[in-house]
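Sanity check. The docking grid for glutamic acid depends on where the pocket ends up, so I'm generating a full predicted complex first rather than guessing from homology. Inputs follow.
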Amino acid sequence: MDYQLLADLLFPNVTETPADIEAKYPPRQLPEGAKVTRFAPSPTGFVHFGGLFPSTIGERLAHQSGGVFYLRIEDTDAKREVEGAAEGLIHTLAHYGVKFDEGAVIGENGCICDKGIYGPYKQSERGPIYHVFAKQLVTEGKAYPVFTTQAELDALNAVDKKAEIKAKDWHEDQSAQREAMLKAREITIDEVKENLAAGNPFVLRLLADGDPEKKVPFTDLIKGKLEIPENDEDFVLLKSDGIPTYHFAHAVDDHLMGTTHVIRGEEWLPSLAKHIMLFRYLGFRLPKYMHIAQIMRLDENGNKKKLSKRDMGANMDDYSRMGYAPACVCEYIMTLLNSNYEEWHMQNPDKPYTEFPFNIKKMSSSGCLFDFNKLNDVSKNIISRMSAEEVTQQVTEWALRYDPEFGAHLANNPAFTTAIFAIGRGGKKPRKDLATWADAKPYMGFFFDCKQEDEYPEQFDRSDIKTALEKFRASYDHADDMNAWFEKIKAVAREIGYADDMKAYKADPTSYRGNIADVSMFLRVAVTGK
Ligand code: GLU
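Predicted complex below; grid placement will be based on this.
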């Protein structure tokens, strides 16, 4: 087979060589040990909690080592792409402190543009680059076309929408498929010419030289030492529309963009053998890989389940709505990522999490358990250490958006609001009442007369409550001191047949309708709603 001729037939318009492309992507000049990481989402919708994980790791590893963290948009699957998703993603990540040095950014006109010299950072704009490397592989006899008719293609697309991971057409090592693959490899130049003349589309497949009986040792930075069976599947590099698969695109991009560490979900682990082969074929140095386990949650029965898209807490927008401060979410993520984070934090309560020496070795290889209770604990601690001014500012901002009526009270009375949040703040043991900004209203709404429904315990006679409140109001004098005031409550208790003394009540509970503590509670609920 004349591979050069084959390559020229398949890619008549590609005139550049890999060397021409490489010249445009000079090696990065970074200090020794600096890591180059990227977040490479397919913008198909909202930012998932599980997406904040790899991005936080990438951000920490790069910035902790004096390296570069960049954003690449993997938008090669037009069918799955959602309009505006990339912009939303950038905003959401920034909200949680994940900021990129380079890559796709939002420009002044509000649209995505490139920052940095290793772009374009949107895969949909890198078509010609992939084709140069694809042509090279054909020239070297490492890739070949498989033609199909448009009708066959339509039928295939109808069943197999997610062609990349899920494609089963060649994956299963059934002998018929293997035979078809081996036969497809035998395509002749004349057949190629005929197909091209007929306008038939082709996919480009890699010619795999692996033997699955043989295992390659591989060290994943999270999973540890693995044995990967060699790849023997002629997987697709370019789809019939010329668009690369994830496998091919990420190899070309991570190489050209100088990525040193790939941090991605463990769902890619089964594809690793393909990637190892592809990097070898392309003559690229393999980056280090970190495959992160799925985030789990406990279901109602206490069983571990994957945190799925629809679960509460999966969508990062939920956290804003529920009123979680970004700093709390970030700290919580750190506790999930590194087992020693909490200990460090206890020793360094005033340092930001960015000063924590994040360590890959302290990551769990089996996946983290997402738990709202834990998040709330972390959150209460952090908020308890914030200044009253800061709490006021954040609660007001949140409430103006999500509870405008309450928000208006706070915004109109900032000094009063700050004074309320100052109660029990500061000192060694600050109050830990708030886990979210949404907790503020039930906690202090009564100061503004926008308390929740009054909640009197069921067991008390409603008329007892009403009489007690009326009597107390009739006797109330603002000039009373604490003792005079309490004497009046005692009097109210006696008048409605409640014990005015706890000792007496405990000695003979059946002769009273209730006691002084109950009457005090009626008043407390009447005033605060709680
Ligand atoms: N676009 C891929 C995904 O969203 C990226 C995986 C990777 O980071 O390499 O799963």
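Relevant for the grid: Residues 344 and 356 are 7 Å apart (CA to CA).
Also worth noting: Confidence is low (pLDDT under 50) at residues 161-171.
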